[in-house]
């Protein structure tokens, strides 16, 4: 498929029409509403483009979901549509951070600055217990996704059960559908099949400055000390949010919003 022919992601635009453009990319199991507290404050200064990842909206857009290379192409096509000239700022969380890194790696000309929340571009080697926790919930979600491909209501109920165990907030948990789980399938398939590993993030060093924020109150950290060094080398900044979990943009907007605003404000 020629470049430019990829479908764009669902999106809406809020905030100041002539302000600098920020593109917000959510993760699992969210949608664009994740960023409501950020847009309410940042919209006075920024043009906010709120993406919904494929299959995370009200309707599925592709059976089986989208592998990472195609997802990057869809994101790039979306950014070119909303910002035909110049670069955008990326604000990302969870899987949105991961695909944001892939996007910046493949299309550095599109991204001027990035704010990545809670998922680093380098994870390091977790200990045995964290590794088992990560594998356990991710493979459980893959199983829910497979079941949901045949019986969607059952896959959805199973996904909600897994989400309850891993303490996903009630707002997100109530809306979960099994089709949201496809990134976990493609992650593990690509890791386990050697000829697919090129689809994953490897040896990533951002070519734009990165603001990295993470919640300090979590059983598992999804970044490494090396990632913090990489962020600093990018000309960026890293900071933990005390007493905050994974969804700190919702629980601590009074801390997050000023940091994002300052990071993307023109000099």
Which labels suit this protein?
267 residues; alpha/beta; Rossmann fold; 2 domains; seven-stranded mixed sheet; 7 strands; 15% strand
Overview of this protein structure:
The structure is a single chain. With 267 residues, the chain is α/β, with parallel strands linked by helices. The chain folds into two domains: 10-127 and 197-264, Alpha/Beta hydrolase fold, catalytic domain (Rossmann fold, 3-Layer(aba) Sandwich), CATH 3.40.50.1820; 128-181, no CATH class. The protein has helices spanning 36-42, 68-82, 95-106, 128-150, 152-165, 170-175, 182-192, 225-233, 248-251, 253-264, and strands spanning 10-15, 21-25, 47-52, 88-93, 111-117, 210-215, 237-241. A seven-stranded mixed sheet has the order 1-3-2-4-5-6-7, sandwiched between helices. α1 (36-42) crosses α10, α2 (68-82) crosses α3 (95-106) and α4 runs antiparallel to α5 (152-165). The protein is globular. The model has no long low-confidence stretch (mean pLDDT 95).
